[in-house]
Amino acid sequence: MSYRAWFQCINLECGATYPLNSIIYNCKRCNSLLEVQHDTKQLARRSAAAWKKLFEARYKTTQWPFGSGIWGKKEWVLPEIADDNIVSLYEGGTNLFWAERFGKLLGLDNLWVKLCGNTHSGSFKDLGMTVLVSQVKQMIAEGAPIKAVACASTGDTSAALAAYCAAAGIPSIVLLPKGKISIAQLVQPIANDALVLSLDTDFDGCMKVVQEITKDETIYLANSMNSLRVEGQKTVGIEVVQQFDWHVPDVFIIPGGNLGNVSALGKGLLMMRDLGLIHKLPRIVVAQAQRANPLYRSYRKKFKSFEPMQAGKTLASAIQIGNPVSIEKAIRTLKQFDGIVEHATESELANAAELGDRMGMFNCPHTGVALAALIKLVKRGQIARSERVVIISTAHGLKFTEFKVRYHERQLDFPCRYANRPIELPPRVEAVREALQYALKRRSRLRV
Q: Between 2.40.50.100, 3.40.50.620, 1.20.58.220, 3.40.50.1100, what CATH number should domain 96-122+230-405 receive?
């Protein structure tokens, strides 16, 4: 069977369409964002059972390119791209961590963490970047004038873009807010030969600049307002359902910054429903840092209005965004999924991240935001003990070792409840025995 996809304006009153090989990010008629639409009637000619069988047969195989968690679902992502133009680092296929101890501490029987950071560049951004860079490679092969791909970033997007462009042999440009990302995140695009521009502003300032420079069609925009990214990121929900033997969790909790990931999660789940693979939708919870919470503020007003804000400095630096470009898509998704928006203070997110670490995780601060939101919702009774809950962990904790060191050294400006500093001792058996006796007595049962 042949399948096709195209860009379409998200404004239902407009509905303008454009080919996927167009260099375009907003609708030319009404300036709204675009999204990728698929020929669902053609996709529906294959039964739900047949799709499941196909996806299962491809999952994590060595057959190019279908072993990728993204390209194993190629027909649902970019059906018309040539396999030779796919740029894949075998992204996706990340494990679901059964957070049994953390769940029991909260009174939950079925808590899981989708470890999207266990991928090539260490974050979920790989899921979308493989799609975008693959499409760029195909466009260049077709004669498009693209000379480089650019993004504004708080760290993870730049790392993914640089890695995939390096693999494809396409120059990359990244604009970063000076002094506002971790060293680990800064060194990734540098190592992958990106042109790194450190601007004395925040992410929103970087975003304004990159939108201007990409008006030149030789520089292609890679931020999440480019809906090609969403096509890859939407597979995370599909993959979770597949990992649960095609059963849908009751609740997803996902950190929210620029908000492309929220709409992506919803899009994949809606596609599954529309094609008959699932028959119910979960609730989606978006978790924001209190210092960068414009969506939460809009939610508190029942989405009757939205006001951008100046994001304050937060440990959850990747979601330190006050004017998210995907706000319209995110609000639409939350309305479709009985959505909730919660936020977390710096103390709450840091302590939740470390509490999770003590139970076998190794959390980035953004996952800490999601865990803190979970704790609040359980305490308020908005998540029931019997519900299956999935936390989307967006990045690997190794990208944020500075944050973790500062936490355990008690160098943050709030009480670090679970800090665990090394005990310095002379090299004597008696000193070690005394320290063990004292320390093991002090270790008590963890409490939230």
A: 3.40.50.1100
